[in-house]
Amino acid sequence: MGYFRITKKTAQISDGHRIYAIGDVHGCFDLLAELFKRIEEDSKKRQAAKTKIIILGDFIDRGPKSAEVCDLLYSLRDYEGVICLKGNHEEAMLESLGGDLRALRFWLEFGGCATLESWGLDSILIRRASLGENQHELIAAMHDVIPAGMIEWLSKLPLTHRDGDYFFVHAGIRPGVPLNAQKAEDLLWIREPFLSSLRRHEAVIVHGHSETTLATFSSNRIGIDTAAYRTGCLTALGLESDQQWKIETSELPLASDALPIGSPAKHAIA
User: Fold this and answer.
1) Which of 49, 71, 135, 252 fits a 20 to 30 Å CA distance from 114?
2) Given its phi and psi angles, is residue 186 left (phi above 0), alpha (psi -120 to 50 degrees) or beta?
3) 3-state SS, one letter per residue, for 94-116
4) Which residues are CB-contacts of 263 (< 8 A; sequence separation ≥ 6)?
5) What is the bridge-based pairing of β-strands 243-248 and 204-207?
6) What are phi and psi of 187, to 5 degrees?
C-alpha cells in the first residue's frame, strides 16, 4: 500500500487533529482518486480525529486530466476538511486568464497546453498561441470553457496553512524571514536557498514544487512532490500528534470510477 511509519519527531500538530497533505497532482486524476481511497482506508484504521486533507498546489498542468482534477477539488470547496493551496502553476494560469500574454506563453511552455487540452480546447489554437499567435483568441476560448466560478475560486486559494508545529505551503519559504512576512513569490516559486537551508524555521515546512524520487524528510522541512505525472507515484504525508507517515500510489492506479466525485474525501474528513 506504500504506507509505513516514520520515526517519531518532536514537532506536533494540534491535539485531536489529523492531517493528510498531498503533493503536486499535476493533472493526474486517476492517481488522486487512488490516493483519496488509500487515505480513507488509512483514516478508518485510526481513532476518530478532526481530519483535514491539504492539497499543496500545482494540481493542474503536465498530466492529462487537469480539468477533472479541478472539477473534483472545486466540488469539495465547501468542505472545511479540504484545503487547497495555490501553486505556481495555478498562479500562471490565472495570470494568463487575466490577459498577461507573456505569462500565457510561459505557462504554455511548462504544462499549460495539457491543461487546456483537458478542457477540450483546439490543439492547433493552443500551439499557435504558444508561438505568439492568436493569443487573445485563446484567452477568450479559455474563458468560454473554464467556469467563471472556478476561476474565482482559484484566485482566492490561500498560499499557506498552519497547524501546530507545521507550516504548509506550495514551494517553501525564504529562510530567516518570519512566516508572517513571507512574500507570495517565494511561497509559490522558491527553491534555493530554501532547499539547502539547515536553519531551524518557526515550524516544519511541508511543501511540494521541487521534484524528488522519494519524499524528503529533514528536521526543518518535508518535501512530497514525487513527480506523479511521470513516476505514477503521488504522495500524501500523514500527521497526527507527533507521528509522521506517508501514503503513496502505485504505478498502476485504480480506475478513476473508483472515486465517485467527492465521496471518498467526504468519508475521510468525517
Assistant:
1) 252
2) alpha
3) HHHHCCCHHHHHHHHHHHHHHHH
4) none
5) unpaired
6) -60, -30
d(CA 66, CA 69): 5
Amino acid at the residue 133: E
In this prediction the pTM is: 0.90
Question: Cβ neighbours of residue 136 under 8 Å, at least 6 residues apart?
Answer: 99, 101
> Nearest 5 degrees, angle CA 263-CA 269-CA 270?
90
pLDDT tens, position by position, 58-68: 999 999 999 99
Q: What is the largest CA-CA distance in the chain?
A: 57
Amino acid sitting at position 246 = K
What is the tens place of the pLDDT at every residue in 187-227? 999 999 999 999 999 999 999 999 999 999 999 999 999 99
Q: Are strands 82-84 and 50-55 parallel, antiparallel or unpaired?
A: parallel
Q: Grid coordinates standing for 24?
A: 503536486
Residue 264, preceding peptide bond in cis (omega within 30° of 0): no
